[in-house]
């Protein structure tokens, strides 16, 4: 790696889904305008991996770190940290807690842990400390590996992001009680994409790509049963002969053909 290229930080993003009246719905957040990264952009809950996410004493249920390491082409410690970050970020950003009092249960009312949620977001508490104090088990089996996107090398802030998918646990409510979201909504992938094409909100290529893929599933059972091949995707900035400022990601030509204001593309 060139000395001028910033090393990509590990990150986890979770596509939280549920079955709605007209098909699959996914939980989306519009980030506040003051964020250092992707300000004002519509995203899924997620964020960077913290050092504390990789501790070994987390109570765990489901596929072991070695299984996740194979799917995400990384080492076991990093894989554990990615899964832990996925659970932590989902709880911090929308109040959905993928954990339970036993290995085969999940909490029904996550608002019970409202104070701990705030402490987690302020980094006053680690996920391992929270789970241990409350006698909870991390439910890795409620997550599915989905994709891996890496920020282009020319960017000053870079992430190596693993995307997960998870079903909204029964009884829990996803909310917008986070300092990072200006507004939140459950939307079908089709509706979210149509709204983007109309210029009503901004989707960066990774989010667009995941929404586009979800359009191909009839219900959440089909999504959770899917086993997508996960290959690292790192878009590349280039003038190119086709006029697209960014390439090397699936269906990039279709993304730019549908982008409402290509001249204002803010990926850089």
From TrEMBL:
Its cofactor is Mn(2+); Mg(2+). CDD domains: NUDIX_AcylCoAdiphos_Nudt19. Residues 7-210 form the Nudix hydrolase domain. InterPro entries: NUDIX_hydrolase-like_dom_sf (IPR015797), NUDIX_hydrolase_dom (IPR000086), NUDT19 (IPR039121). It comes from Nocardia halotolerans. This is NUDIX hydrolase. The keyword Transferase does not apply. One of its GO terms (molecular function) is hydrolase activity. Keywords: Hydrolase, Magnesium, Manganese, Metal-binding.
